[in-house]
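Quick one: structure for this chain?
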Amino acid sequence: MSKTQAERASKIDAMMEQASRALVDRDYFAAERIAASALRRAHHGADYDRMARILLPLQEARRMKREMAVDTGRITLVEADLPEGRAFTAGCYLVGPPRVGADGRLLRDMADERGIPAFILVREPPTRDGLWPIVAVGPVTVRAKIEPPDLSPPAPAPAKPAGKRPAKASAAGKPQPVPMAWFIHAAEQLGDEAISQVPLTLPAAARVDALVDRLEAVPLHEKLHQRLEEACREALQEPPRRRKPGMFDPFDDDLGDAD
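Got it. Here's what it folds into:
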C-alpha cells in the first residue's frame, strides 16, 4: 500500500468512527453525511472492504430518517411551488407534474441541508395504460411504472330518517389523500427497479460502480444498500483494479481535512 493509499484509508477509518458516534448520538443527518462522504472516498480508491463496512451505518442513518418522515403520517402533494420556510416540515412529499425529477432531487437536498426528515418521491404524467412513472435522478435516472393509488371519493353517507339532526357534510366528491401504504410501496418498487437494472452477470467491480450510481439516485432504499454491500464483498475476490497513471484524484488534496 502506497503512502497516499494509507493516508486515504486512515482518513476513511476516522470518518467511519465519526459516523458511528453520530449514530449513537442520534444525529442521523451528520451520520449520513459523513458515511456518504467516506463511501465516495472508498469507492474512488476501489477499497471494497471499507465500502462494505461503511454501508451498514449509512443504511441505518437513512432508515431512521425515513422512519421519522413516515411516522408523521403526512403526505404532501407538490404540484406548484416547492415548499419553503415554515411550510417545509418533516413528512413525505409526492412531487407531481409540472414538477420533474430534478425538482425532487432539489427538494431532497434542501431537506438534508436543513435537517428535515423528508421522504420524497416524484411522479411523471400517467402513461397510456394509466400507470404512474415514479422517477429518481442522480448519476443515472431510475424509473418504475406502477399502478396509481385509489383516490376515488368515498360513497355518500346514507340518508338519515326524518326528524334526525342533519349529518355533517360528506367527503364524497373531494380528492382523497394518497395512502401511506401506496407511497411506501411505490418507493420500494423504485428501489427494486434500480437493483434490476444491474445484471448479476457483470463483474462484481462493475456492479459496484453501477449500484453506487443508483444508490445516489435512490438513497432511502434498504435493499439497494444490501445489494451494494454484497457486490463489494464479491469484488474483494476479483483481481484488484488500478487507476490509470496520471488520473486525477479529487481527494488527494484534502486527506488531512475533516468533512
